[in-house]
Amino acid sequence: MPTETTSQQPKKILVVSAHPEPRSLNAALTTFAVEHLRAAGHEVRVSDLYAMKWKAEVNADDFPDHQADRRLDVLAAQGEATSAGRLTPDVAAEQEKVRWSDAVILQFPLWWFSMPAILKGWVDRVFTNGFAYGPDVPPPYSEGALAGRRALLSVTIGARESSFSDRGIHGRLADVLHPVQHGLFWFAGMAPLDPFAVYRSIDLSRERFAIAKQEYGRRLDGLFTDEPVPFRTLVGGDYDHDMRLLPGVEAPGTSGLDLHVHPRA
Amino acid sequence: MPTETTSQQPKKILVVSAHPEPRSLNAALTTFAVEHLRAAGHEVRVSDLYAMKWKAEVNADDFPDHQADRRLDVLAAQGEATSAGRLTPDVAAEQEKVRWSDAVILQFPLWWFSMPAILKGWVDRVFTNGFAYGPDVPPPYSEGALAGRRALLSVTIGARESSFSDRGIHGRLADVLHPVQHGLFWFAGMAPLDPFAVYRSIDLSRERFAIAKQEYGRRLDGLFTDEPVPFRTLVGGDYDHDMRLLPGVEAPGTSGLDLHVHPRA
Description:
Chain A is α/β, with parallel strands linked by helices. Chain A is built from seven helices and six strands.
């Protein structure tokens, strides 16, 4: 639902953008979001991963204290480097931006039904043990290390919307993006909104681009007021000690990934 | 179901492995798979992405014929480079391995509920327009450009199995891996088997590693004989022209991603 931008308090928003071409639709949507949010009084920072030449792969170079002759345990190395403040400057800078933010927007083309590798590498390297989860931060799924923040995926998709609809062959977009919406954002305590998608994104006409911007503008206006996806909380009593949904919690006939979402009105 | 390896015809198998540490569990499982499959008479090739220093991100450098002042349209550039035989040597070499193979195994740690960035980058760069899909190859979902090949995901997972079970909070492993199983393999015409997973993979004891190898060995023995996931085919009459499942095709009460799988006996 559109909301009055004038009624919003100024907030801090991080936009992470992942497309190699500065004249791409993705770049245009990033620019649009930045201008739209700033016009509404918000503070915006952008991580343009290709422009930053973001290093995608996790490896030993991420851990300055790691001894070359030792076996690299990624989870342990991330945890130690995070707690010791010994992450590489690129990772530390991105963590600072996420911590600073009230909302994170990821802008990317859907490649092979998920994020481009460079963006997956931003997630793999920035959302470290000790930062986004771990024994010393609040538990995952609703509390979470990064609680209090909203999250929005803005994706461009070559295929038609029908193919990602309820009965669409690719699977519902919400299910295809479940690893990010639920597995990344919700796990880390962030509240994800429904994704914003531009379908049939190849050679988008000027007219359809104008419509897409209008729709995206409404979603940006609702960034802090729209209802997030009502995922169930781990700490709310719906799950057992083995992290399985308790019997009978769900509405009759619910199955699969829908089990983990409260029914919507 | 275990099968007699001696009854199998020799086949060609590509193992793609994605872990930065040569002494990791993932590396050990790759070594095990290679030895086990070779002992059964198969030909095996390995793409060890970290050892190869695989370039993860798609960018203009992937397209030698791309003019720097032109807008980079990734889909078009991939299509042109593929049909002209003008892909970079690293990508061309991987495509040759996939073409050569009767089965592809991806070995990786589940990071943020999907592939490590370096492996996603192998997918993004190797499964090009014109190679894995496109107007000049057989249509996706069952026919597909890479039909006749099997596919197996072998993943290590820090969490317990219960948390990925039918009612597990992370979602069923099959649903979490749907973007790869259905979106990548099945889309491209490859027949994916159920994933093989080692849960609670952190500090795996010698005893549990031995059990994991036994289980993995059985799965490798069944690589060409086990029943693949019975995904529905796009061309089999189950979908309409907008790629939506026709009404009433599914068993009553089926929803979500299960819509796209034939019920199993």
